[in-house]
């Protein structure tokens, strides 16, 4: 059967004829065959990640900046030839065609597939051609964190054949960057001197034994995977082997090495306490004067931007002298959510009840007198009257305002003040998160004022429009603006009052600007209103 049969169906009859001269008759019959002829195209669109050497699939994974190769497999699916086959491709945003990358069955072809299309010739029945080209994914700044699907459409048609298409998808993943975030707090205490409190700095003598506390908390938006911590001991402070614990369980040595020790995966809000001991060198290693040893701790996790660190100090005196030392620690917890652990940053919602703890300690070697503590709760919070306690004993006053006086705090003594606060209702907060920072201050004779803070991250459901940080204290910006405006207003009227005759001449002039004249008219209008009011006042009261 010929390939030239036109598109559609046709009946082909095969007839046989028999002639008989004896009977002078003719006999005939035929066999009928229905033949269908069609024009058709099929297209298959695939993709391959060149950067990662992936397979050729209908969907591939990629990252910003990767190079992708697209394949268009075009086949004549009918029983007849097709002519003038055309293919074109519609790249989505954030995919850019790489010039000179188009090939047809492995042979280079001119550009144009993404800008109007290219003709790839005539196809005989069941013939296949493969068109390939490459595109580059945009840089990371063009994508949101997570996975973005880029769908690429390819099209084909021919004379007498309607347009067909197929798609391939590129799943672009952008890492969350710094979404995992860690918080670190480091403190120390002197075991040899029987200190039972933690502080940012302690006094010590040569050969004293020091215990070090490192608290790591996950405060980001996602789990901090593979969290680690390490410590860098200063010279003359020596690690005591076998002393490391994590949340009370002993851990193998390694915290003072560069690789540190593993804390595992820390979910958002989770924290771990790492403790270990170190011993100061003997007296022969120190001079006669005081020396401060600074001890740093570092923490990091997968996908965090960098290491974070905190430090504590050991002040070493070879000869015992009178040292004044006052420390303060502010922590909080959410009572409405039955939170037990004290943290320096925690979550809450509007109308919930939270509790704060203030721990003041004398880490010097002499008593402290006139120890005073005062707290400044942030706006949109209200202290619950009668909730203040000192070492668990109810205290009639409040720690806010003028604060409270502990009078004398003995050497090594620690006192804990606790009080409760009610957070304002939801209509006092915008949608999203607001961070309320609660500051506390302490002072004593011979000791400068010190402070610490704890923060409450308030979440209100709704579209996240932004996050604010509210600090306690007076904001004088509005007052300053008001003073400037009033000063300008007074200066303007004094200036006009001293030059009234000149101003009248300006009003009569045709040269000055309309704005200047409007200001002058404003001055006279205010003046006359003031004069009229004064005349009425005199009539009534004088």
Explain what you see.
By secondary structure, this protein is mainly β. It folds into 5 domains: 8-37, no CATH class; 41-174, Immunoglobulin-like; 178-305, ntegrin, alpha v. Chain A, domain 3 (Immunoglobulin-like, Sandwich); 322-473, Immunoglobulin-like (Sandwich), CATH 2.60.40; 480-541, no CATH class. The chain contains 3 helices and 36 strands. The strands form 7 sheets. Strands 3, 5, 7, 8, 9 and 11 form a 6-stranded antiparallel beta sheet that branches. Strands 14, 16, 18, 19, 20 and 22 form a 6-stranded antiparallel beta sheet that branches. Strands 25, 27, 29, 30, 31 and 33 form a 6-stranded antiparallel beta sheet that branches. β12 and β13 form a beta hairpin. It starts with 7 loop residues before the first strand and ends with a helix. InterPro entries: Chlamydia_OmcB, DUF11_rpt, Ig-like_fold, OmcB-like_DUF11. Keywords: Membrane, Transmembrane, Transmembrane helix. It comes from Candidatus Portnoybacteria bacterium CG10_big_fil_rev_8_21_14_0_10_38_18.
């Amino acid at each position: 059967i010929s390939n030239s049969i036109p598109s559609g169906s046709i009946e082909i009859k095969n007839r046989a004829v028999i002639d008989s001269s004896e009977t002078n008759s003719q006999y005939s019959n035929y066999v009928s065959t229905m033949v269908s002829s069609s024009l058709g195209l099929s297209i298959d669109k695939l993709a391959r990640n060149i950067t990662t050497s992936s397979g050729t699939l209908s969907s591939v994974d990629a990252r910003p900046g990767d190079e992708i190769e697209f394949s268009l497999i075009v086949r004549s699916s009918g029983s007849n030839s097709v002519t003038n086959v055309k293919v074109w491709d519609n790249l989505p945003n954030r995919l850019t065609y790489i010039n000179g990358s188009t090939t047809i069955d492995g042979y280079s072809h001119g550009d144009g597939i993404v800008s109007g299309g290219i003709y790839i010739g005539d196809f005989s029945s069941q013939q296949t051609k493969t068109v390939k080209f490459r595109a580059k994914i945009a840089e990371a700044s063009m994508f949101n964190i997570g996975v973005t699907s880029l769908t690429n459409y390819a099209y084909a048609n021919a004379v007498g054949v309607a347009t067909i298409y197929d798609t391939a998808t590129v799943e672009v993943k952008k890492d969350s960057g710094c979404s995992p975030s860690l918080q670190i707090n480091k403190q120390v205490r002197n075991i040899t001197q029987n200190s039972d409190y933690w502080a940012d700095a302690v006094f010590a003598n040569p050969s004293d034994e020091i215990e070090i506390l490192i608290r790591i908390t996950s405060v980001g938006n996602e789990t901090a995977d593979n969290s680690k911590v390490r410590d860098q001991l200063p010279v003359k402070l020596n690690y005591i082997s076998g002393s490391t614990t994590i949340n009370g369980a002993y851990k193998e040595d390694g915290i003072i090495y560069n690789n540190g020790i593993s804390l595992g995966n820390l979910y958002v809000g989770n924290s771990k306490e790492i403790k270990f001991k170190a011993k100061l060198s003997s007296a022969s290693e120190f001079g006669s004067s005081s020396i401060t040893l600074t001890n740093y701790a570092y923490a990091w996790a997968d996908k965090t931007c960098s290491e974070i660190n905190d430090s504590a100090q050991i002040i070493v005196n070879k000869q015992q002298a009178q040292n004044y030392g006052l420390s303060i620690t502010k922590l909080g917890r959410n009572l409405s959510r039955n939170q037990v652990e004290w943290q320096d940053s925690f979550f809450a919602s509007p109308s919930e009840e939270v509790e704060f703890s203030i721990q003041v300690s004398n880490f010097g070697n002499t008593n402290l007198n006139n120890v005073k503590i005062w707290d400044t709760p942030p706006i949109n919070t209200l202290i619950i009257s009668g909730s203040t306690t000192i070492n668990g004993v109810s205290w009639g006053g409040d720690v806010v305002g003028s604060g409270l006086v502990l009078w004398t705090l003995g050497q090594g003594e620690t006192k804990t003040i606790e009080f409760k606060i009610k957070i304002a209702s939801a209509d006092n907060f915008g949608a999203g998160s607001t961070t309320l920072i609660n500051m506390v201050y302490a002072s004593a004779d011979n000791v400068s004022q010190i402070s610490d803070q704890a923060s409450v991250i308030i979440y209100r459901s709704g579209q996240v429009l932004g996050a604010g940080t509210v600090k306690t204290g007076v904001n004088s910006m509005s007052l300053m603006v008001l003073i400037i405006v009033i000063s300008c207003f007074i200066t303007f009227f004094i200036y006009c009052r001293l030059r009234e005759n000149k101003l009248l001449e300006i009003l009569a002039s045709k040269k000055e600007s309309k704005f200047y004249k409007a200001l002058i008219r404003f001055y006279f209008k205010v003046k006359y209103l003031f004069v009229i009011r004064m005349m009425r006042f005199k009539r009534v009261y004088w």
